[in-house]
Amino acid sequence: MKIKKNDTVKIIKGKDKGKTGKVTQVFPNLGKIVIDGINKKFKNLKPRKQGEKGQRIEFFAPVPESNVQMICKRCGRTARIGYKFSENKEKYRICKKCNESID
Ligand SMILES: [Zn+2]
Q: pTM score, two decimals?
């Protein structure tokens, strides 16, 4: 996964296209991410006891990573993510537009 938790992303596909939000969860094995305020869904919980009202719960459903683009926190533009290695061989992410580290 190129996108990580706390990245800010822009939605480029689907009903929330054009919106931006912060990544709150990543699911690397599904290739999906959850973004605050994006892909809002409701879940109806059935009442547990008779006479009780059901509850409607709001949540943000995961979207495919391919539906978003990272917004670089250095230059503020949407950009593709690249990788570089530091002197001690640690991989870090860079913005392909400004070439700055975004980790
Ligand atoms: Zn940048």
A: 0.86
